[in-house]
Design goal:
This protein is an all-alpha fold and 266 residues long. It is built from 10 helices and no strands.
């Protein structure tokens, strides 16, 4: 890695880490400290469980939201770096490297927290906790070894986090090219179109006489790793992982393309 790229990567990573600890500090205050103060003031301290509250924070979920939002913040750092002689390509590369590194570190922390804090506090074994996550569709595919299954769970989540970050980069790069008026229109139009799409799909699934969705359902099953007579826990995680990798490449390509089109605004 060149000295310039490393310097930009380090700068972006340090900035993200500062934002990350502030975000988690706000989460702790909102979901731990404030409920504790409320319980004390209302005389319901006996009903407050510090352990239960602490283990229900959902570190991984919070990080997913954090990484998608922060990676969509494109223009300010672009403006700063481009004015200091950093190319668009170097900026994009540094963001991708920081995303991969940060998501890997957070996945390790989230996994340790889930299996060493949350699972014991809830009285769950490691395998039982694994079966309560989204990875439960695949938690027996790699065999009965818990360590191997946890590794599969970590890789699965890591790819998902990277995908979220690259999607945020792509969306942020596109929005940075739009005028303020166009961005506002898009922010209104996209949720509305998404709502009507959900309504359309819901009505289509209820009205089988008008639309045959068997092909779509089978395709979604394939993407989820379903195979003949497979029971939950024995789905093949290879297919969704490959799908996420392909999605990461596509989103990374979109982010790179629109990143190259970024310009300083007057």
């Amino acid at each position: 890695m060149s000295t310039k790229r490393w310097a930009v990567t380090r700068y972006i990573l340090m900035e993200q880490l500062q934002l990350l600890w502030r975000a988690y500090a706000i989460i702790l205050i909102a979901f731990v400290v404030l409920p504790l103060l409320f319980a004390i003031l209302t005389g319901n301290l006996g009903h407050y469980s510090f352990t239960s509250t602490l283990t229900d924070l959902g570190i991984g979920v919070a990080f997913g939201f954090f990484i998608s939002i922060t990676m969509s913040l494109t223009y300010d750092n672009f403006k700063l770096l481009i004015q200091n002689g950093i190319s668009r390509k170097t900026y994009w590369q540094a963001r991708v490297i920081s995303l991969i590194g940060l998501s890997f570190g957070m996945e390790i922390i989230a996994t340790l927290y889930n299996f060493l804090v949350t699972a014991p506090a809830r009285g769950h074994s490691g395998q039982a906790f694994l079966g309560s996550t989204l990875y439960s569709l695949y938690d027996h595919f790699l065999g009965s070894n818990l360590f191997v299954n946890i590794l599969g769970y970590m890789v699965f989540n890591w790819l998902f986090f990277i995908g979220l970050g690259l999607t945020g980069m792509a969306v942020g790069s596109i929005f940075s090219l739009l005028t303020k008026f166009t961005r506002n229109i898009a922010l209104i139009a996209i949720p509305v179109l998404g709502f009507f799409l959900l309504v359309f799909l819901s009505n289509s699934s209820l009205n089988q006489h008008s639309y045959n969705l068997d092909g779509l359902v089978n395709f979604l099953k394939f993407l989820m790793g379903y195979h003949a007579n497979a029971q939950p826990g024995y789905f093949n995680p290879t297919v969704p992982m490959l799908t996420m990798i392909i999605g990461c490449v596509i989103m990374g390509g979109i982010a790179y393309y629109f990143n190259q089109k970024l310009k300083l605004k007057k």
